[in-house]
Amino acid sequence: MSDQSWTNGKLLDGKTIVVTGCSSGIGKEIARLVKKLGGDVLGVDVNKSDEYVDELYIADLSDRRTIKALVQALPTRIDGIANSAGLPPTAPANKVIGVNLVGLKYFTELMIPKLNDGASIVNVASLAGFGWPQAIPAIKASESLGFEDIDDFITKYGVTNDGGRSYFFSKEALIVWTMKNRWTWRDRNIRMNSVSPGPVDTPILKDFLETLGDRADEDRKVMDRPGLPEDIAPVVIFLLSDMTHWIRGTNIPTDGGMSSHLHCKIHMLEETKQ
Ligand SMILES: NC(=O)c1ccc[n+]([C@@H]2O[C@H](COP(=O)([O-])OP(=O)(O)OC[C@H]3O[C@@H](n4cnc5c(N)ncnc54)[C@H](O)[C@@H]3O)[C@@H](O)[C@H]2O)c1
């Protein structure tokens, strides 16, 4: 039987977790819960707000040199990373792809030597990444995308801000990157998963509504309510905890049922009403 020490005491007792985007919204709620459940939070954000953070590292996660310096400054023996920092589709496309995808990947890969064996990495993706199977050529082309090539990539693959495409693409590629890394660090029992929230009431919700226009109205018609950070953070905590060592490379939709609704619509699984 596997180790079930998580049944004793607090779920994250003694664990040190890095939370990016810790100053607002979902990241802030993740930080609050980590602390409440016995863990220490090393927060990373471009903004200075350290409410639930043991140590705050101010860093712009779209900049290669800053990320390198950040990783050098962070300690070793880290038990988990929650990658929640992200920009909405109203930000410039190169920044959206820089922070949500290229910066996240660069930061995470540099951090691997600083992680304890058995560590957990959780990427906050999005329902916006649902359509990844339709974007395979661009996703494959983005696998080795570096900071300096982002502008050319945007032009070549049309991942501009039109219709929020830069944001959707960043999350599609993130879900696929997570899946592809299911076993990358298996020899050290390090796992990576993602959580995909639907619309969540945080400061960037208005940016999504602005970008999506009529599409957002469609969602609003079928959804009972937008999510709250409190709906999303517990799922991230679950994946950071020792309860989930055999969940690897998975994406967990946390969206009030929206992704199931989309699957049912696409595959015509709803009963037709007479
Ligand atoms: N709110 C939603 O509807 C929603 C839905 C699905 C997914 N998400 C994802 O959830 C994550 C958190 O979003 P949120 O809703 O909490 O938004 P938020 O704006 O409240 O929080 C994002 C945090 O990331 C930080 N950040 C932004 N750019 C950064 C950079 N360059 N370097 C370091 N930190 C940076 C911000 O300062 C902020 O504290 C994002 O990845 C977002 O894409 C949000």
Q: Topology of this structure?
A:
Blueprint: E1 16-20, H1 25-36, E2 40-45, E3 55-58, H2 64-73, E4 78-83, H3 93-111, E5 115-124, H4 136-141, H5 150-157, H6 165-180, E6 191-197, H7 205-212, H8 214-222, H9 229-240, E7 251-254, H10 258-266
Parallel strand pairs: 1-2, 1-4, 2-3, 4-5, 5-6, 6-7
Helix pairs in contact: 1-9, 2-3, 3-6
The structure holds nicotinamide-adenine-dinucleotide.
Residues 21, 23-27, 45-47, 60-62, 84-87, 99, 124, 126, 197, 199-200, 202-205, 208 line the site of nicotinamide-adenine-dinucleotide.
CATH architecture classification name:
3-Layer(aba) Sandwich
Q: N-to-C terminal Cα separation, in Å?
A: 52 Å
How is the CATH topology named? Rossmann fold
Structural class: alpha/beta
Strand content: 15-25%
Q: Which ligands, by name, code or SMILES, are bound?
A: nicotinamide-adenine-dinucleotide
What do the pLDDT scores average to?
Answer: 95
What is the fourth-level CATH superfamily?
A: NAD(P)-binding Rossmann-like Domain
Order of helices and strands: EHEEHEHEHHHEHHHEH
